[in-house]
């Protein structure tokens, strides 16, 4: 187990697939700069789920990159979440140990947390303490080679009863996003 500089215990699982993911992300190209197509998808994801925040997130060995970000103020705006996700600039990077997405990538399964505070593993996470995230729903982006590239996710500062319908929605939206990534890879935009 590791600790962040503020003394929080970080329970992010060991990610043995990270080197393969980094290689695959290099081949595909996402994960270095914001992308309008990913922003558009994040906006639609927010609309479909009714969540105020949504992201398309790629994860390497050390950090997370929000290639698509929607906040209540608009895509890639300066909200607390956007600023926290960005680190030094909105739409940028966040430490790999922050948030729930690294768990989704390692688990390779969707994750629904209607009230993050009910789950000790996540309740002390910096995004909960510093930003006030209370609910999370995310699904992995698994490509045709079997590598989990990252996630799509939605979060809220309020407890949300996502339920089975939310789980099915996030999983189908992840499959849709992967189909779009594959079409781009194949040159069939």
Properties at a glance:
7-stranded antiparallel beta sheet; globular; alpha+beta; two-stranded antiparallel ribbon; disordered N terminus; about 190 residues
List the SSEs and their pairings.
Layout: E1 2-3, E2 9-10, H1 18-28, H2 36-49, E3 53-59, E4 63-71, E5 74-75, H3 80-86, E6 93-95, H4 101-107, E7 111-113, H5 120-123, H6 126-131, E8 135-142, E9 148-156, H7 163-186
Antiparallel strand pairs: 1-2, 3-4, 3-9, 4-5, 4-6, 7-8, 8-9
Helix pairs in contact: 2-7
Task: Walk me through this protein's architecture.
The strands form 2 sheets. Strands 3, 4, 5, 6, 7, 8 and 9 form a 7-stranded antiparallel beta sheet that branches. Strands 1-2 form a two-stranded antiparallel ribbon. The protein is globular and about 40 Å long. The protein has helices spanning 18-28, 36-49, 80-86, 101-107, 120-123, 126-131, 163-186; strands spanning 2-3, 9-10, 53-59, 63-71, 74-75, 93-95, 111-113, 135-142, 148-156. The model is unreliable at 1-5, 76-80 and 82-91 (pLDDT under 50). The relative contact order is 0.17. It starts with a strand and ends with a helix. Helix 2 runs antiparallel to helix 7. Helices cover 39% and strands 24% of the residues. It is α+β, with helices and mostly antiparallel strands and 189 residues long.
């Amino acid at each position: 187990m590791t600790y962040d500089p503020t003394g929080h215990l970080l329970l992010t699982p060991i990610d043995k697939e990270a080197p393969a993911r980094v290689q695959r992300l290099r081949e595909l190209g996402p994960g270095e700069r914001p992308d309008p197509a990913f922003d558009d998808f994040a906006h639609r994801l927010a609309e479909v789920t009714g969540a105020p925040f949504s992201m398309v997130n790629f994860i390497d060995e050390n950090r997370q990159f929000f290639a698509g970000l929607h906040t209540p103020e608009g895509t890639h705006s300066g909200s607390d979440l956007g600023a926290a996700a960005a680190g030094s600039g909105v739409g940028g990077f966040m430490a790999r140990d922050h948030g729930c997405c690294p768990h989704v990538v390692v688990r390779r399964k969707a994750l629904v947390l209607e009230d993050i505070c009910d789950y000790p593993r996540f309740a002390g996470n910096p995004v909960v303490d510093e930003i006030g995230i209370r609910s999370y729903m995310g699904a992995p982006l698994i490509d045709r080679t079997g590598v989990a590239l990252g996630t799509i996710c939605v979060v809220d500062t309020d407890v949300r009863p996502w339920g089975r319908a939310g789980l099915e929605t996030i999983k189908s939206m992840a499959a849709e996003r992967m189909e779009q990534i594959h079409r781009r890879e194949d040159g069939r935009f």
